[in-house]
Amino acid sequence: MTMIAQHPIVVAVLSLALFVVLILSFVILGSHWVRNHVYAFALQSWIIGAISVIVAIWGHFPLSYGIAALTIVVRGILIPFFVVRILDRTGVGRESAPILRSSSAVVVGGVLVIFAFVISEEVSHQLVSLPAVAVLALTVLLAVDFIAFLMLSLRTEALASLLGLLMIENGILAGSQILVPGMPFLLEIVILFDLLIIVATYAVLAPSLRARTGGTDVRALRELTG
Amino acid sequence: MILTLIFIMLVVTAAAALVSLGAPRIVLAEWANQVASIVDLVLILWILWLVPSHGIVGVDSLLIVDPFAVWVLVCVCLVYLSATVYARGYLRGQERSTRSLRRFYALFACFALIMLLSPIQNNPGLYWIAIDLTTLVSALLVGLEPHRRATEAAWKYLVVVAVGLSLALIGTVLFYFAGTFIEGEQYPMTWQSFTKFAPHADPSLLLMAFLLVMVGYGTKAGLAPMHTWLPDAHSEGPTPVSAMLSGGVLNCAMLGIVRFLGIMRSTTMGGYAGTGLVILGVASLVVAAFFITRQRGIKRLAAYSSVEHMGIIALGFGFGGVLGTVGALYQMLNHSLTKSAVFFGAGNAIEAFGSRQIADIRRVADWFPVMGATWLAAAFAITGAPPFALFLSELTIIRGGLAGPNAWAVGVMAVALIVIFVGFMTHFRRMYFTGARPPATKHKPKGSLPITSVAPMVVALVVVLGLGIWWPHPLWVFFTHIAAVVGGR
Q1: Given an 8 Å threshold on Cβ–Cβ distance, is B129 in contact with A187?
Q2: Which of A129, B37, B205, B489 has the highest CB neighbour count under 10 A?
Q3: What is the pLDDT of residues B345-378, one digit of tens each?
Q4: Which domain holds residue B401?
Q5: Is the ipTM above a cut-off of 0.85?
Q6: At A54, is the secondary structure helix, strand, or coil?
Q7: Nearest residue to A86 via CA among A181, A203, A213
Q8: Residue B58: beta bridge partners?
Q9: Could you tell me which chain A residue has the CA closest to the CA of B133?
Q10: Number of structural domains, chain B?
């Protein structure tokens, strides 16, 4: 992180990439077309892969090349491919009755970004040697995760909830690439593996959901209370 | 030697999963799981014997076999064995297809394998992954049950716990981040390195990281107010899975919180971290007391009792010191054994009476004298009544609480325990002593229970009774070694 912070152009490019990751979260939050969610998630993953490459070159963390390759292959290609296949099979298109309109959801998301920034600022006051790009990385990590939590609570379509879960991991990876580039490579590999398992678990549970509730709207799941 | 034994345990359990998957006859899958669970229990008891003299054993930064991990594994192996014995009669009685049984036993062994792996992870990140994998495998075990409520339970379980664990992951990243200011940008991610830098790291950043970790793993451990998945998943899954979730997974998740708490106790924020855990423990007891008194489902009743007991364990570790920690460790074992018996009894009652509702279960002891008496005794034990071991462990936790700065929580705990005792026993009084006597009952329960459905209950209860009368001194000494690391004060 300290090496990266010494190159103003690299910092500018990383900041731009982090902003794009955050904006793509808003694209996912604001759209009710599940297919758009998948494309935005894939693009987000490609940008995180690019962040890894930048960290590898200017931060001198050669293992980050591996993380970049895995991120692009698993998050940017394989997972979107599987999810699109599930979409095609199930015929899920648009959320029919969203809990909150797109505009309202985006406003709430904006408030969450401000909240994430306040937390990051507070942390940066405690740690005087923290570079600005690290504060931004922490803000994006928290903001993308808050938006993913919001998605999980607002989305009624099971597949959209699944993408919310995947977006949480993207937020963590995007931020941690800059905050803790030395974090063990093995961990990153297994987290990617974990993402694949989440998708596989969904693929197994979704048919039961459809067979027993007649669809994949999670609002039908209200039997268990008390 | 210890690592070889651990390796054998893992290989045997993995082999059980593979054999179950390809078993031509289901009896082979049953035996594979049973043999694996027996081997696991024998070996872990052997390790329990060896570990005090060998100290902490590890493989580079990957694995760690310390007394705490071994103790959690003892709880896991006991529940795995009793659950595999119980599963035989329980699943045969349900007339499932061979394919469904094969899938069940393979996933069940996988579930046990991941639980065996999680406590011995020396890398907090890999530990997180192991805990996450237990969620995914157990969600499948719950969700593949052939009814709508199970799908709902599995879905909620997956989403709620995944969100919780993501917070734990952020907390872990922030812990590592805090260390980069002392150890440099790249250092090994192990419990030892966290312990080494923690006293010198920024305390407020560490506290923030700990709170995230506590809420994250607290979600998996079923601590209120993040417990919402637990009653659903525990009640809708097959009974052997309910026992494994309650007696195994919850302890595995608690281990993560306690390891981080131990690290925090070496910093100036240790007191705040302990109080945070005490608050979650109190919240769990209050929530459990409220829902137990007004409960209508028998397995949900047992599930809320798990929330209660995880709350008590959280209180013990939160109080800290020798008494609090020792009491919490003893409570882990006692809860695992007793709760398995309570779940098995509930499973038997549901199968026999054809309903999950307490109102439909009547005159249990008249229909099933041995199982009924054992289940009633298990219910008595789970509420912390003497002479069973839970009474001893809860009393020790109370003593630990009174000696520390969070004595206020002991008062709340005492009131909640009384309410829970009254609520729990009221439900059991109705199930045992109200309703028409057997000959006049309109809907007669299904025939007699197989011995595999009753024997694990009897054995568990005898052990809990024995441990209530005699707390082995070597076990106390063993616990004090763990308390010296994670107990603080």
Answers
A1: yes
A2: B37
A3: 999 999 999 899 999 999 988 889 999 999 999 9
A4: 2-486
A5: yes
A6: helix
A7: A203
A8: B64
A9: A194
A10: 1
